[in-house]
Write the structure tokens for this entry.
Amino acid sequence: MKSFQTPRNLLAGIDADATASLIAAASDIALIIDDEGTVCDVAVGSEELSAEGYRKWIGQLWIDTVTPESRDKVEALLEDASSKAGHKWRHVNHPSAGGADIPILYSAVQAGPRGPLVAFGRDLRAIGVLQQRLVEAQQSMERDYWRLRNVETRYRLMFQMASEAVLILDAATQKVIEANPAAAQLLGESAKRIVGRQFPEGFDAESTEAITALLANARVAARREDVRARLEGFPEREFQVSASLVRQEGASLLLVRLSLLNGADSTQIPRAKSLLLKAVENAPDGFVVTDAEGRILIANRAFADLAQLASETLAQGEMLDRWLGRLGVDMSVLITNLKQHGAVRLYATTMRPEDGAPLDVEVSAVSVPHGEQPCLGFTIRHIEQRLRAVDSRAVPAQARSVEQLTELVGRVSLKDLVRESTDLIEKLCIEAALELTRDNRASAAEMLGLSRQSLYVKLRRYGLGDLASETDE
């Protein structure tokens, strides 16, 4: 802390009353403290602080006049005042009759080698009010900022997802500032390539002149009429073009909207989905879209090949169970499961072509309940190469395991499945008996409750054991 250079010469004539006046005028509140930390006198230079009745502090310890969390700061002030080190200002809170604490910024100085301590205080309430207003203003700005960010995010999302083609131009230069994906799709360019170009570009001469006049009228007049335009080289593609003037932050922008005419669909399928449709059309697996009842709306070429149809258009309007599964059985099961679960995977059934033998197929299906028309999608895969040909009428063709037996469900009738199950169980029991008796057939027949002759008949039927060396007993 730097002091006056010649205080003895300049301030030698100041008496005690003048000194007291200077101390009171230099601070909002001043305390004279003795060596024990007791308040000997109080001077208040602020009318607001005078109303608090600080005169009652006289005779009390200074440390008893502050709030509990400020007691350590008062002790530090007393130590700083008695030392020759620099005097620090410390924030101290005094309790108030009104309830809210009064913040005072204190610094303590010892008046002379043996003099009392003088504590200078500055009322911080005005600064606190300003700080509170600053915080509130900053929070208000933060809220406005995030509100604008949210509005901008919603605008961006709507701009990108809008099905109508929209361009935003600089009104002065007519250069494209922004273009949404629908505009890029309609003009056959990417949005990045359109931005920065001057509009109109790529239209024929007559259309370019009409659009230029439209933009000029939009800049100066509130009323405007839409114009029609055609792309150069594509006379069959006719657009309706409209423009509106928008002012933003002192700048003028033009909002241009493009709509495809000639009965064309202005909400064209995005390129990615168009590629997906082409892939489905050329997929090696059959793909069919039906209505909720199973009537075919559209089918791909692979389905026509499975059904042995000359063209996939011949399947439109027909019921899918005309070719897929057992008539009135499999489609009912599939549709019921689609309504309950929304999807079916790897359903084993058969495909009945127009001419030829049935084919083993797997069906995966999905339900699309939402949209303009609820529909069902079926993927049909030919799996005959992955499965063994099963002739349910041939007795020797036996299922070798439970897994193979379950694969027959949907291909053969329940009566045939029961016969297959009985034969499988009988064969497994005979094999188990032979294993337990170490291939002693007499003991195995006794264990199974069969005569040896009946056991030999069953062994021949299932092809078990070597019967060539056996002799009839």
